[in-house]
Amino acid sequence: MLDGLFRGTQARARGLLTASQLYGPRYRRIYPDVFAPAGLAPDLALRSRAAYLLARDHGGVLAGYSAALLLGADCAPLHAPAEVLVPGYMRAHTGLLVRFGTPTGCDVVEADGCRVTAPLRTAWDLARRLPLIEAVVAVDALAHGRAFAPADLLARCAAQRGARGCRSVAAVVAWADPRAESPMESRLRVRLVRGGLPKPAVQYEVRDEYGFVLARVDLAYPESKLAIEYDGALHFNRHRTELDRQRDAILASHGWETVRLGRDDVDPWMPETARRMWDVLTFRAPASLARGHRPRAGFIRVQVTRMIKNEPRCVDHEKRGGRWLPELASTGRTRHRGDGRARTAGASGWVDQCAGWPRGWSRFPLPLIC
């Protein structure tokens, strides 16, 4: 019993532990009266199961990211709280999100010994309240390899008109693609298209002249023979790196170019990554981009750092609809010009934004932050 999660009051009532042992260094308190051995990592999986021990006494089930994780769709951010859905009152705690509602019978399934919301209900909940990109990531992960399609959310939206956040579901469904095999792949795809690039093919099979499959790549632009691969942690061991190198060589022999991206290319450096992809597409197949696509940044945040008395100070700028909206810090200055551009005080003096670059992009000697 004490190798996993347990209720402290039950352990003491059965004489398994004393109070000093329970609150000593051998055990960790997850939630009130819910403990776990100190050697277990307090990740979302552990916190979700601990939350279920509390919620089941209230007739609750796991929901949101907790339900998605136990259903096999690990799409939660690093420090996402555990989430439960209860029909009545239940007190929230640090790291525990409590939502109130009564799911119907078809909306509840059992996964890993816990009652959780079904995949369709979980996707419906997350699509209504998450930001667009994270909602697309969650719907992709939950619909991948399961018996529902993202379009099923539209039918549920029509059946539950007036539900909070249902207006955003249509946009999430339009961006979703259940063929995506990882959350970062979904983030990369959405951010590339939002950056102005054409929509790439997902999990594309590259074939030779005889129809044999050479490789299946994460994202592809077949007209340009460009393959984009996202390399997670599993790609950095010696054996996997050698396999990737051999596959890239095979694709290169058939005229394909493979671009491999990591987490840093997707999160802080996405504007620069989108520009690189645009340059590659323009070089390899300019005619395929003559359909009105061009690099743009509907939302770019640029951070310019100045050293004042050996202390870095930052000035943030946001671009929306062709206008620069400066958020001025105490040490930053911005001069607005009549041509819609701005000049910003940077470490090397006043720096022109958009000068010499495609419209919607900014060139700085310091990092671009999306």
Question: Could you list some keywords that capture this structure?
Answer:
alpha+beta, 370 residues, 12 helices, globular, 4-stranded mixed β-sheet, disordered C terminus
Can you walk me through this structure?
- With 370 residues, the chain is α+β, with helices and mostly antiparallel strands.
- It is built from twelve helices and 19 strands.
- It has helices at residues 8-13, 19-22, 44-55, 64-70, 119-129, 132-143, 152-159, 169-175, 183-194, 238-253, 263-266, 270-284; strands at 6-7, 27-31, 34-37, 61-62, 82-86, 96-100, 108-111, 114-117, 201-207, 213-221, 226-230, 257-261, 300-308, 311-320, 323-327, 334-336, 342-346, 349-352, 368-369.
- The strands form six sheets. It has a four-stranded mixed sheet, with helices on both faces. It has a four-stranded antiparallel sheet with strand order 15-14-13-19. Strands 1-3-2 form a three-stranded antiparallel sheet.
- Helix 4 runs antiparallel to helix 5, helix 5 (119-129) runs antiparallel to helix 6 and helix 6 (132-143) crosses helix 8 (169-175).
- The protein is globular.
- Mean pLDDT is 80; it is low at 297-370.
